[in-house]
């Protein structure tokens, strides 16, 4: 063990229970060494620090803004010793190796077309929002004069969310705090940002007093800012002010878990003397003025911010710089702006409606937000001005806001009169070999919501299992709707199914209903499991008989059904024949089982003896007869995937009492092929979209749905 050197402007962080000290300047030389300590007393130098890029040396760190993310990775950008000041570096192994990040690409924020991401940074500040989202305050003179916010943890894409140079035609709203060098940027527990202090000293100036002691706050990741205090010393008494030397350059700021700000050290303004003081933020004295004269943002649908249109049924939020409260019972107004309605909306107004649409809204509050709930849905395709009368809203200390309206409180409403269209079904229409337990996934042209009714999944042949899948039990993920089979139910094997949607099964967020349509068809696998039991019990429901007719009774049904394709090739398969009246075997007929080419076995009806077990039986209580297929040598006669015909020759049956003889009867069926599905389950939907960028950093549970039930 040894003591670490005492460089200046080094990087110091506490990561995974270890202090990490890197770089700095000593005697005018930039250092490249790395030290670690578990206690802060004894330090060990880390040998063999490497760059993960063979063509780049590790960064030299001195006065380099740096932050730590939720995974313990340390990010740095720029600095006095770093010749490549536009490259992001990070280390995720407590300084043992460094990785340089590819150059970031600027993408639009709202409707803004941004300039290129800066290639150099100096006197900037960094923060991490939500544990992963990197934010850069590049607000020094001759900089981009902007707030940059990355949209993904890989730092490949970035947005300019605030500011911009005066000569940039696409600049956003000017930053209220102006230009300054080396401010501190701090992220709060509620994803807000504090910008603290800074200076306008020229490089190398030794006795500088051009320092800032103000604090600014942004609740929306850097897009909008308002002043929290103009001086750290606001509210101090005269004795305290006389003993206060101020906070100069090179100070350090930290934010604790309760969002308290601590100011540490720095250089006393106008001197070369270092400060030994630590300052802590507190709630403040009696509030006698409003932090801001009006709210600085309305969501959703803000026209000024370039937000997407809001829904007619949305709830709106006005964001203030401090906690506010409304007068009980008072309401806000949404006043339609002129000249913004489409042809369809014009007809909606009707004759004699010369006044613009005005809709009242209730007012409630949550902290620094006013929540506006229109009493009636707003009209599609319109723009509205939000208005709140003077003295309706006040801050926590009772200071009243004036009449609230203006361009910052204008919203536009989405117009959508087109119903969602069915785009595809999974499994695809016409698919074969579909597992009998498959999940049906429908994809629409837009996000949908649950309506009423059930998805109809009907077999082409009537004997197959018929399914009605209620939309109330489906899973809806944006534009996808996932229908699972109820527990214990499956599609009939080797059966073609038709899928159809009734009107109103689904609708979009504006209430446009999906029209009745066919989703297509699919054919199930001739697999291992059947939906029927062809041994012993017969049909689940005995068919009812119509009025008796002359001659031999009508054949009502067979079990297996005529044309069944899901008969398992096993022993003890029994065939049931149901009639309109009781029948019995004669002594002159015969029953034959034929495969696709030959007669396999023949059973004379004379072998039937009442009360004696045998291949033929009579079930008078069910108006039925039964044929048990032989099992020569104890093995089943049926084979995988083959078709069979059970033939009752003419005269094999007669009705009881009348002596009417039967004509020839044929029952056709096919055995399962006992195929095993070979297709792997596929992901059909997830609650995070491909390429989605606005995922909260605190989220750690995601859902994925697959093409087969688990």
Automatic annotation (TrEMBL):
<feature type="signal peptide">
    <location>
        <begin position="1"/>
        <end position="17"/>
    </location>
</feature>
<dbReference type="InterPro" id="IPR032812">
    <property type="entry name" value="SbsA_Ig"/>
</dbReference>
<dbReference type="Pfam" id="PF13205">
    <property type="entry name" value="Big_5"/>
</dbReference>
<feature type="domain" description="SbsA Ig-like">
    <location>
        <begin position="416"/>
        <end position="524"/>
    </location>
</feature>
<keyword id="KW-0732">Signal</keyword>
<protein>
    <recommendedName>
        <fullName>SbsA Ig-like domain-containing protein</fullName>
    </recommendedName>
</protein>
<dbReference type="InterPro" id="IPR015915">
    <property type="entry name" value="Kelch-typ_b-propeller"/>
</dbReference>
């Amino acid at each position: 063990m040894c003591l670490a050197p005492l460089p200046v402007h080094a990087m110091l962080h506490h990561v995974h229970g270890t202090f990490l000290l890197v770089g700095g300047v000593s005697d005018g030389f930039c250092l490249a060494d790395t030290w670690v300590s578990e206690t802060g007393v004894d330090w060990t130098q880390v040998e063999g620090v490497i760059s993960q890029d063979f063509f780049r040396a590790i960064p030299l760190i001195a006065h380099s803004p740096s932050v730590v993310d939720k995974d313990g990775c340390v990010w740095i950008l720029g600095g006095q010793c770093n010749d490549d000041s536009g490259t992001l570096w990070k280390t995720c192994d407590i300084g043992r190796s460094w990785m340089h990040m590819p150059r970031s690409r600027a993408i639009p924020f709202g409707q803004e077309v941004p300039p290129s991401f800066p290639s150099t940074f100096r006197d900037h500040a960094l923060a991490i929002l939500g544990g992963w989202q990197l934010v850069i305050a590049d607000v020094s003179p001759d900089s981009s004069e902007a707030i940059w916010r990355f949209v993904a943890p890989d730092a490949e894409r970035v947005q300019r969310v605030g500011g911009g140079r005066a000569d940039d035609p696409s600049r956003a709203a000017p930053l209220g705090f102006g230009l300054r060098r080396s401010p501190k940027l701090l992220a709060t527990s509620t994803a807000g940002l504090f910008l603290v202090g800074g200076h306008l000293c020229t490089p190398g100036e030794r006795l500088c007093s051009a320092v800032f002691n103000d604090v600014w706050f942004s609740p929306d990741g850097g897009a909008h800012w308002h002043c929290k205090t103009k001086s750290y010393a606001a509210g101090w008494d005269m004795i305290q002010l006389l003993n206060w030397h101020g906070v100069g350059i090179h100070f350090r700021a930290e934010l604790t878990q309760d969002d308290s700000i601590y100011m540490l050290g720095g250089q006393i303004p106008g001197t070369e003397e270092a400060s030994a003081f630590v300052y802590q933020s507190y709630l403040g004295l009696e509030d006698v003025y409003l932090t801001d004269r009006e709210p600085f943002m309305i969501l959703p649908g803000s026209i000024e911010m370039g937000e997407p249109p809001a829904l007619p049924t949305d709830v709106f939020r006005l964001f203030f710089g401090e906690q506010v409260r409304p007068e009980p019972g008072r309401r806000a107004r949404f006043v339609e702006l002129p000249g913004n309605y489409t042809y369809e909306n014009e007809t909606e107004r009707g004759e004699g409606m010369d006044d613009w649409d005005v809709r009242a809204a209730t007012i409630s509050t949550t902290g620094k937000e006013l929540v506006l709930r229109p009493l009636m849905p707003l009209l599609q395709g319109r723009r509205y001005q939000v208005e709140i009368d003077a003295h309706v809203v006040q801050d926590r200390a009772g200071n009243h806001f004036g009449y609230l309206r203006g361009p910052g409180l204008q919203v536009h409403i989405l117009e959508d009169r087109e119903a969602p269209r069915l785009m595809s079904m999974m499994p695809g229409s016409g698919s074969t070999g579909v597992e009998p337990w498959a999940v049906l996934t429908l994809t629409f042209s837009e996000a949908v919501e649950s309506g009423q009714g059930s998805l109809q999944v009907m077999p082409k042949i009537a004997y197959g299992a018929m399914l009605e899948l209620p939309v109330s039990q489906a899973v809806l993920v944006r534009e996808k709707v996932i229908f699972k089979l109820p527990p214990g139910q499956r599609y009939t094997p080797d059966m073609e199914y038709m899928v159809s949607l009734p009107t109103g099964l689904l609708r979009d967020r504006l209430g446009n209903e999906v029209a009745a349509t066919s989703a297509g068809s699919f054919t199930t696998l001739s697999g291992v499991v059947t939906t029927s039991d062809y041994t012993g019990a017969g049909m689940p429901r005995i068919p009812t008989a119509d009025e008796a007719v002359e001659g031999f009774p009508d054949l009502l049904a067979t079990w297996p059904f005529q044309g069944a394709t899901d008969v398992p090739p096993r022993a003890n398969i029994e065939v049931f024949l149901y009639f309109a009246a009781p029948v019995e075997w004669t002594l002159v007929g015969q029953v034959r089982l034929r495969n696709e080419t030959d007669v396999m076995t023949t059973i004379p009806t004379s072998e039937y003896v009442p009360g004696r077990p045998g291949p033929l039986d009579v079930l008078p209580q069910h108006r039925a007869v039964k044929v048990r297929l032989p099992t020569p040598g104890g093995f089943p006669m049926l084979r995988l995937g083959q078709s069979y015909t059970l033939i009752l020759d003419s005269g094999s049956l007669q009705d009881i009492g009348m002596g009417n003889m039967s004509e020839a009867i044929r029952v056709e069926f096919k055995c399962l092929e006992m195929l095993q599905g070979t297709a792997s389950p596929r992901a059909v939907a997830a609650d995070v979209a491909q390429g989605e960028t606005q995922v909260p950093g605190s989220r750690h549970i995601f859902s994925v749905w697959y093409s087969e039930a688990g």
